[in-house]
Amino acid sequence: MGRRKEDGVPKGYVPMIVGKEKEERFLVPTKLLKDPFFAALLKMAEQEFGYAQPGVLRIPCETEQFRSVVDAATKKAKS
């Protein structure tokens, strides 16, 4: 069963809140989550917030760093 249209998250994506001081919302394709650099970001989130984060997954890094990881993982997934 797909996600409801009202929640704004298309099927195959995971919403994430990224940033330390200024937070920004991202929709990340699930296929990128297996990338080793992305796994490191998820480990950072687990260490800072634990596994029981209520609501949207939060990643404790700067948005520029997050964008770099997403860009690199996207390029790797396309090759």
Automatic annotation (TrEMBL):
<protein>
    <submittedName>
        <fullName>Uncharacterized protein</fullName>
    </submittedName>
</protein>
<dbReference type="Pfam" id="PF02519">
    <property type="entry name" value="Auxin_inducible"/>
</dbReference>
<dbReference type="GO" id="GO:0009733">
    <property type="term" value="P:response to auxin"/>
</dbReference>
<comment type="similarity">
    <text>Belongs to the ARG7 family.</text>
</comment>
<dbReference type="InterPro" id="IPR003676">
    <property type="entry name" value="SAUR_fam"/>
</dbReference>
